[in-house]
Amino acid sequence: MGRKPDKDGAYGKPAKYDPSFRGPIKNRGCTDVICCVLFLLFILGYIVVGIVAWVYGDPRQVLYPRNSTGAYCGIGQNKEKPYLLYFNIFNCILGTNIITAATNGLQCPTPQPVLQSLEQELCPRFLLPSSPALGRCFPWSNVTSPELPGISNTSISQGISGVLDALNARDISVKIFEDFAQSWYWILVALGVALLLSLLFILLLRLVAGPLVLLLILGVLAVLAYGIYHCWKEYRVLRDQGASISQLGFTTNLSAYQSVQETWLAALILLAVLEGILLLMLIFLRQRIRIAIALLKEASKAVGQMLSTMFFPLLTFVLLLICIAYWAMTALYLATSGQPQYVYWAPNASLPGCEEVPMNASCDPMAPSRNYSCPGLMCVFQSYSSTGLVQRSIFNLQIYGVLGLFWTVNWVLALGQCVLAGAFASFYWAFHKPRDIPTFPLASAFIRTLRYHTGSLAFGALILTLVQLARIVLEYIDHKLRGAQNPVARCIMCCFKCCLWCLEKFIKFLNRNAYIMIAIYGKNFCVSAKNAFMLLMRNIIRVVVLDKVTDLLLFFGKLLVVGGVGVLAFFFFSGRIQGLGKDFENPHLNYYWLPIMTSIVGAYVIASGFFSVFGMCVDTLFLCFLEDLERNDGSRDRPYYMSKSLLKILGKKNEAPPGDKKRKK
């Protein structure tokens, strides 16, 4: 049975019977209007930031190399000239840092050939065999330098090799593209198998949920029992050898503790305690485990009645993709805002005639050069300007964009949870199933949520966003303090990070149940969160049991789907499955692990999407079940809405209406 409320009402009063309640309330009003207005204004500002970034930004600055005059290679007038050639690559390797800020691209203080350079007789002093990498020409590593005395060819070769190893991903990318071109349809087949396995697993739970949960629990018991046996075996061997921690002493080498008997004894005690707790739970909480299994079966039936809910995550995925893509494009355009700046540069500023040149002073590469007698003087590209209102505000605009990313992503996830909760709640509160289930429960819940509860979803998403941003700031501070090696500071930082992690998990749990109550009763976020929390606290033992049983079952389901697809993909793409016929030949791949990993990741995403819907269904039906127990008593006027299997487990029954002899017992 559920936990009875405290006499002092510490967890609130049980829900009272409402004769007009028949599931998700249709006559409702808008909730959290102020937060809705703030969210819409924020989105409007987010759009303005995107427009500003679009106007002032230029992503070509990071996509294409630029020559000495600032012209892009590979586009426009240089469309037939995609590669950038450095006059003296050794200046890049030996004299400077090749890789600068991402927005400045790969810059090098050496002239880059254009028509003007030829007219000024500034041709390269030598040419080397080269290959393209990131749109730039880099020499092969087996070259020698005839003009750099005092510098070994080994160091030059190593420098060039380092550049090529770091940047030349062209061949690999081409091979990866070829592999995807050869295997994309087989990857789609693997993803289709993952979809079918996920759907079948959920639909078959109504038949096998009980035996499967029992099998999984026994499997956990068996694993713990083997762990106890293994620890005892290791402990006995080390005890006979006399290996003790007193002989080892304190050491930072954690692997050394495997060779002392106390380690295995502590592990044995811990596993034995876990085994004992699990056995006691099976004995004393078997009734609640049966309730959890019955709710899982009921959730499988609900999904079977509303199969459209299984594909609702596709809409959520598209919305998330839009949010992430918009932020990424906005951040890219903001990072590339600014005009190119050019400065004077010479290979050797100490030569006669160069002292009068204002090195690093701004210049115009297209204007006629002044009468400087400095040998090799060039006007080269340096960076992009950081002056101007937009450029000075880039950091603030990027922060605004990050806040927009987290807030919109969390709002989209909240929308998906609330819509699914509304659809599944309409299933539970249908007294005669499936006759009383609304015609389009998912569409009705979607329209109802957008129309009335945009503000409530934004409120919950904002709370979660602030906590996540606090965690990011804390991670940044921790990254900066790692070099300090202050154990006290590290300990305090670890405690703060742990607290924020726990807070984020709690807020996600609270938001999830608040959205369920919003979908059912149409109240604001704070009231819904309070009512959900009080309802769960009045039935805390049932909450824990259902949560753990559901987690165990869904973990097994993901393992089954991902593992099955992964094994099939491995045997197929590695060529171990032969004889499928001419139309089913194994593709010839450069990296056979690439489609395997793609299939596994895709299967995990699909399984997570399906099982997230099922998990939301279980949570919704569970809250409805608890409300049903508190609202109704099985009488003729207040019948229970739960299934007959749940009524049987609880030892309850609905009173049969007059004349219904079949239901009288």
Automatic annotation (TrEMBL):
Source organism, top-level taxon: Eukaryota
Tagged with keyword Membrane: yes
Family annotation (Pfam families): Choline_transpo
Membrane topology: Multi-pass membrane protein
Any one of the GO CC terms: apical plasma membrane
GO molecular function: antiporter activity; thiamine pyrophosphate transmembrane transporter activity
TM region positions: 33-56, 184-205, 212-229, 264-285, 306-329, 411-431, 452-474, 514-537, 549-573, 593-626
Reaction equation(s) it catalyzes: choline(out) + n H(+)(in) = choline(in) + n H(+)(out); thiamine diphosphate(out) = thiamine diphosphate(in)
GO biological process, one term: choline transport
Keywords: Antiport, Cell membrane, Glycoprotein, Membrane, Transmembrane, Transmembrane helix, Transport
Subcellular location as annotated: Apical cell membrane; Cell membrane; Membrane
Family, similarity comment: Belongs to the CTL (choline transporter-like) family.
General function of this protein: Choline transporter that plays a role in the choline-acetylcholine system and is required to the efferent innervation of hair cells in the olivocochlear bundle for the maintenance of physiological function of outer hair cells and the protection of hair cells from acoustic injury. Also described as a thiamine pyrophosphate transporter in colon, may mediate the absorption of microbiota-generated thiamine pyrophosphate and contribute to host thiamine (vitamin B1) homeostasis.
Protein's recorded name: Choline transporter-like protein
Source lineage: Eukaryota, Metazoa, Chordata, Craniata, Vertebrata
